[in-house]
User: Which sequence fits this backbone?
């Protein structure tokens, strides 16, 4: 059967990798023809590879760069009548089912002119996986993402030949971003999509790119963004602002933040379609190379490294003044601030949950700073009114406290009362009953008290050494994210119960020590400054629970609070609250059962558009690791969360 697909590869001095790249194309499960453009390599590529069937070599007389080499290949391919043209680099590895999957997608979707896919990024020296990149799938999401940068991995492209003939070739004016310019040109005329699968291993340099090359890339990107500027589209302006900021933000800050975020379990690039990729990987046990590694290999790096990078990013935004530049575009109308513990600093070196606590002095300084910024400090009810009535004459902030810890009453409440600051208090009703399982704190206690622990993980007994503070931090991170990645809340609690029993941690006593009882909560609830909200009964990861359990947790917690305090709460906070624990199903149920607002832990400020997503509201965490007053200005500007969210205003999917 004649091939429908011509694969275009350019090679220049790729002696170490080109054979593996070519072999991966020849291993395709559907027939393809490969065209290798040798950009005047020192050793001709054909001398290295011989003459394998299905491969055509085109050697150029002089080195002209990637765009010129690709154009030479297109000039050779286009007259030959192939239906599709695919891209491939000389140092990457294509999976055998790649072209079959992409062609099948294109046959089903004749309106799509170009399709890409996800890719596994691997270290160019060791071949070890670095991260999985899951680009957006929906054409509208792709269109919005393209205002900021190229969301396609270049060697995953597959285009209809007629699209390339009509809208190509590559421009020679943007040598550091030729793929971004071409895809912007194509996107202006045809629909783009991505296949929801990882179809390629993409090599990246372990040392990163040089400063000069990075600046050339950013400059070409900015020129492309200006060329395709639509002055009426705010994302165009936001994309250019982001590119300008990247000139001043250190490359290390950006790259490590991305690697940290994408390496977290359950996160595949941060897009709303992540479950598509996860589901495919669950089905691909024993599938071609590139299937996601299961187990504990993907846990985050030690938090000490991550916090240093985040702090550097916040400092850069502040001292460069970039947060002031960005605020008119990304500052929104207000913000919901999230806190957990408020208490004096502890002396222990091992505090893996330190991000959940701030000092009373810091809370005092936050309130003073917000008032100097002329931000209204308002209740949750008033926030709801302003969003619904679109009353945005003044920016506002709500202070919220999750779980119902005793230190909220002992240390935060006197400060809030003296300053006349309204606040929200979200209560998980099993906590005052002393039935709550604060498993993250149980895990901390077990690791803190022991130099070696044993537990059953995935059906096998594991013995883990945790001698010294650094080792304890690493073990906590490893086990915490493994637990967060388990299939159900029941699985998590079974592991934690076993740990508590083995190492003598009294979970009820821990809950009693740290959490308010009903009389303490009732005392705070009587103050008009306080708004009591629901936080489920058992502090469960709702997205991992059946729908009946979700509904029960949302309704029963409200009923318990009403019976105990005399008033039914109308505001709700999702436990954990990230996209792996609360999503569209939970947002819909919260609205259906009657909550006026519900808050996540997805980072972001509030925009007018959130009036249409009142049960999927973002918050800004006042993180105990970054208790610097000036960071409040950065966080309230929306700059940090805009960069984190790719300038998406609403993240409700």
Assistant:
């Amino acid at each position: 059967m004649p091939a429908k697909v011509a694969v275009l590869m350019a090679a220049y001095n790729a002696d170490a990798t080109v054979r593996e790249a070519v072999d991966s194309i020849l291993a395709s499960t559907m027939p393809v023809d490969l065209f290798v453009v040798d950009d005047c390599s020192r050793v001709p590529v054909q001398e290295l590879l011989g003459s394998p069937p299905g491969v055509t070599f085109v050697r150029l007389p002089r080195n002209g760069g990637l765009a010129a080499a690709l154009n030479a290949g297109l000039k050779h391919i286009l007259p030959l009548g192939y239906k599709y043209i695919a891209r491939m680099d000389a140092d990457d590895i294509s999976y055998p089912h790649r072209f079959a999957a992409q062609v099948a997608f294109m046959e089903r979707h004749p309106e799509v002119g170009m399709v890409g896919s996800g890719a596994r990024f691997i270290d160019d020296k060791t071949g070890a996986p670095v991260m999985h990149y899951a680009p957006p799938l929906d054409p509208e999401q792709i269109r919005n993402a393209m205002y900021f940068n190229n969301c396609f991995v270049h060697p995953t492209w597959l285009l209809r030949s007629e699209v390339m003939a009509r809208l190509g070739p590559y421009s020679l004016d943007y040598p550091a971003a030729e793929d971004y310019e071409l895809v912007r040109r194509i996107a202006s005329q045809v629909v783009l999509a991505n296949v929801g699968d990882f179809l390629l291993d993409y090599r990246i340099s372990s040392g990163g790119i040089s400063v000069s090359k990075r600046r050339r890339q950013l400059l070409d990107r900015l020129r492309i963004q200006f060329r395709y500027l639509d002055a009426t589209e705010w994302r165009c302006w936001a994309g250019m602002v982001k590119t300008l900021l990247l000139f001043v933000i250190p490359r290390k800050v950006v790259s490590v933040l991305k690697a940290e975020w994408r390496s977290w379990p359950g996160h595949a690039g941060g897009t709303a379609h992540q479950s598509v990729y996860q589901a495919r990987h669950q089905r691909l046990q024993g599938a071609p190379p590139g299937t996601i590694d299961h187990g504990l290999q993907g846990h985050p790096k030690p938090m000490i490294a991550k916090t240093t990078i985040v702090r550097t990013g916040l400092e850069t935004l502040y001292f460069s003044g970039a947060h002031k530049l960005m605020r008119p575009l990304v500052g929104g109308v207000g913000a919901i601030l999230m806190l957990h513990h408020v208490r004096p600093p502890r002396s222990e070196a091992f505090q893996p949950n330190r991000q959940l606590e701030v000092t009373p002095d810091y809370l005092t300084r936050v309130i003073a700073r917000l008032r100097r910024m002329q931000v209204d400090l308002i209740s949750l009810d008033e926030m709801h009114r302003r969003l619904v009535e679109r009353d945005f004459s003044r920016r506002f902030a709500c202070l919220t406290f999750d779980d119902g810890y005793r230190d909220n009453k002992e240390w935060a409440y006197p400060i809030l009362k003296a300053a006349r600051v309204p606040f929200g208090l979200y209560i998980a009703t099993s906590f005052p009953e002393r039935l709550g399982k604060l498993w993250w704190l149980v895990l901390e206690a077990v690791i803190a008290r022991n130099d070696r622990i044993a537990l059953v993980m995935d059906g096998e007994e594991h013995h883990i050494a945790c001698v010294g503070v650094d080792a304890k931090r690493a073990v906590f991170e490893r086990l915490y994210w493994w637990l967060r990645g388990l299939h159900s809340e029941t699985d998590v609690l079974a592991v934690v119960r076993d740990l508590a029993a083995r190492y003598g941690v009294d979970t009820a006593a821990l809950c009693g020590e740290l959490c308010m009882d009903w009389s303490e909560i009732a005392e705070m609830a009587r103050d008009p400054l306080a708004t009591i909200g629901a936080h489920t009964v058992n502090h469960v990861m709702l997205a991992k629970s059946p729908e009946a359990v979700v509904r029960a947790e949302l309704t029963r917690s409200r009923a318990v609070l009403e019976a105990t305090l005399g008033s039914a709460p109308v505001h709700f906070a999702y436990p954990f609250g990230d996209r792996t624990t609360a999503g569209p199903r939970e947002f819909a149920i919260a609205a259906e059962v009657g909550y006026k607002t519900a808050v996540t832990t997805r980072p972001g400020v509030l925009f007018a558009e959130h009036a249409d997503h009142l049960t999927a509201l973002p918050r800004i965490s006042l993180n105990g690791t970054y208790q610097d007053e000036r960071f409040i200005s950065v966080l309230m500007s929306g700059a940090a969360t805009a960069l984190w969210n790719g300038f998406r205003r609403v993240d409700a999917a």
Remarks:
- The domain at 332-434+515-622 is CATH 3.20.20.370 (TIM Barrel).
- The chain has a mean pLDDT of 88.
- The longest strand covers residues 191-204.
